User: What shape does this take?
Amino acid sequence: MSIRCIIGLGNPGKRYAGTRHNIGFMVLDELAERFKAGFKTGGVSFLLAEATRRFPVVMVKPTSYMNLSGRAAREIVAKKGLLAEEVLVIHDDLDLPFGKLRLRKGGSAGGHNGLADIIERLGTDQIARMRIGIGLAEKPQGFDGADFVLSEFDDRERAELPAIIAKAASAAELAVFRGFEVAMNEFNKKTETEI
Assistant: This one.
């Protein structure tokens, strides 16, 4: 099954723009820039970018908050006549080391509320997803995951972020042009030191 829609997860507004939870938006911004496609209002609950000639996929940023990301997923799937299996969701993952990519087809949300809402509203867990690690090697005592994902990247992370986003965008491109299984095989075997 081809990927025809990429949904990058994040929270809308300037307040959240540089936070760890918004890495899905950052990857979509990179893809849109590569294919010269601007985001505009695409529906009630999302921004849409299309570059159909050069990149035959719609790129979606939900405009609801993270926990309601399924609204955009359901709306774009209905609007474009898509199957859930044609959707790729890109999101942060607190349990993966910073910079590590993991592509997976189907399965649980793994504690990610945005992905959980998409699974619930589309009525299936058979959705391709790209998890991008934002986790710490060691979590300090009293660590609060909710606060951490809504915090901004530190200086070291910011320096490494462009390469991570570029790698994730390239994985998404490969998933569109050559298939999700090819992208899984290529990018899951790479380590975070190969960014």
Remarks:
- The beta strands are 5-8, 40-43, 46-51, 55-62, 87-97, 101-105, 128-135.
- The chain has one domain: 5-194.
- The longest strand covers residues 87-97.
- The CA atoms of residues 44 and 72 lie 8 Å apart.
